[in-house]
Specification:
The complex is a heterodimer of chains A (351) and B (367). By secondary structure, chain A is α+β, with helices and mostly antiparallel strands. Chain A has two domains: 164 residues, PurM-like, N-terminal domain (60s Ribosomal Protein L30, Chain: A, 2-Layer Sandwich), CATH 3.30.1330.10; 166 residues, PurM-like C-terminal domain (Phosphoribosyl-aminoimidazole Synthetase, Chain A, domain 2). Chain A contains nine helices and 13 strands. The radius of gyration of chain A is 21 Å and the shape is globular. Chain B has a domain of 152 residues: Rossmann fold, CATH 3.40.50. Helix content of chain B is 41%, strand content 19%. In chain B, helix 1 runs parallel beside helix 12 and helix 7 packs parallel to helix 8. Chain B is globular. The chains are: A alpha+beta (351), B alpha/beta (367). The interface between A and B is medium-sized, with 25 and 43 residues.
Chain lengths: 351, 367
Amino acid sequence: MAGSRNMNLACPIPKSDYETVLMAHGGGGKMTQQLIERMFLPVLGNEWLEQGHDGARIPQISGELAMTTDSFVVDPIFFPGGNIGELAVNGTINDLICCGAEPLYISLALILEEGFLLDDLWKIVRSIDNAARKAGVKVITGDTKVVERGKGDKIYINTSGIGKVLPGMSISPENCQPGDVVIINGSIGDHGIAIMSERAGISYESPIQSDTASLSRMMLDVFHHHSNLHVLRDPTRGGVASALNEICQASGMDIRLYEDQLEVTESVRGACELMGFDPLYVANEGKILVILPENLAGQVLDIMRSHETGRLSRVIGHVTGEHRGLLHMETTIGSTRIIDMISGEQLPRIC
Amino acid sequence: MKYIDEYRDKLLVENLVREIRRETAREWTLMEICGGQTHSILKYGLHDLLPEQISLIHGPGCPVCVTSVEIIDRAAELGGNPKVILCSFGDMMRVPGTHSDLLSVRAKGGDIRIVYSPLDVLGIAEQNPEKEVVFLAVGFETTAPAVALAIHQASKRKLDNFSVLNSLVQVPPAVEALMRSDQNRIAGFLAAGHVCTVMGYQQYTKLSEKYKIPIVVTGFEPVDILFGILGAIRMLEHNGYGVENAYGRSVRPEGNLAARELLQKIFVNEDRKWRGIGTIPDSGFLLAPGYERFDAEIRFQLNLIESEDSELCMAGEILTGHKKPSECRAFGIDCSPEHPLGAPMVSSEGVCSAYYRYTRVTAVHQK
């Protein structure tokens, strides 16, 4: 079944009918039904969606649950390394993972702008399906609305997710302890720079790809072996600096980073130098910060590195014994500097 | 990364620091002119590595910071004009004017766009012939050539809906103004490497001779800055003065001749008001005769706005190196990057924002 679905690459709504989203596609009538039946069900269809019900009844899940919601408004919707569809699914899955939960179900709400190309919608729906299946989650309920041309920007996506917290997991930013180490699963700043470069029309010798990825498989593997993780956080908007600052503030602990341990690709570094950004504040979409007792670090790193998304996992810092709630970094030249919360958005510098 | 890592090399830094310590016998105050240098110094904690006889004070080389509040107010007025598309560098968006900043004007419906290059503005003007497209031109000699090129091309392409709200300034007159001040305690300057890349350093030779002061053309990476400091200290300790180029990989004595020629064609010098400092003679670039039609102040008759700086903000004393941000009563309390009272707290090159970002804990504790 999955195989035959993948074969179906052409947009299932014939171009002769219409090429773009019309107001009627969100009207709840025949056009809406046609959109669901031709475009969504053949790809995302499952026992819940096929019922065509107002919502989904979820079978009993024992134990603690985790729930998250996130909206995606990225511009451009297609960018090097991904698109808004997989970004939405991966983002929601990763938020559940950061609660120590196994992602199970997600909802999918689309807000489409009148005139949006159905071909593009089709690409996005397929990529949503692909990302969900890779992570083993099911899209069990959804909604489509259409807004007049100019009232939206092509497509906005909201996804909510439900997951089952694994037994023994107690993840909270307040849990970090002096001596804990901070692990990240690879290079930083890729997603934000890929998006900003695309927006600014800057291209590079080696194109910068978004790191959008589901962390589900790698982290579930970790969870099954070790439940004594203290903090998990995906450093999306605001980057590693903002995520760690939030943890410092919540726990009142100091965290010290080592600049020479932070992996930043040559292209991202070059782009940051050019545009005046600090990669520590740039968004990631396939990274996770894991804070855990030092004696577990070796084993957890081994598990993470055995997965493609964690190949470059490494320790980048530790929780010190100080209680000021500050994030600081030992620089490559041996001095120390404070890494503050970013204020507002990073603005490109002028000279 | 090539051409970056070499200049952030730990061993080179250690060697330079050792050499500076060996050379330094007396007390010296040096000023780094450019805000980019200030940020590097604080980001890498270079001030902590220097012997205590050397104190670094931070110069006015932040274009966003020295742009007068009148210009911000005029930009805000233009940005709110429904017939206008105002284009600006991102840095200017949050700088407080008398009543508002550009981000707030945009939130209220003003068409204000962030651009990366003045040349992008020409495209916007071409695509929107029914609108007046104004570029808020702030910056030093580094930015001025790109603005000059945009004006030159607009003239050639006969773009009559493009104009420039001009606040471009020049560094050497500001250096001279600092040297003339009664309170001056600067013994040597680290000149801004990028400005000299465009303009060369012949103007500094005259200043150095006139005031018998060492001026070292300096880059922006830790090794560059320490190398510049070493050059200045060596001259001072041997009672010498003159201009040295410690940024030879970028700066030629004559600068970039094509850029200088264009500047001469498009601009003439004029007196310019610097925020917090006052009017400095001949420190601005004014559109030359023949190009006045691209001057937004003439096109829109904007001169009547009454502007006020915040009373709490001591940006002037900070931009002239008389006070450090940590000596300001508002620093970190009434004034922060979220609620800036003055531009030095906003700009990525502003000295207050550098202190806030990199040294806030120690600075607030010292108060």
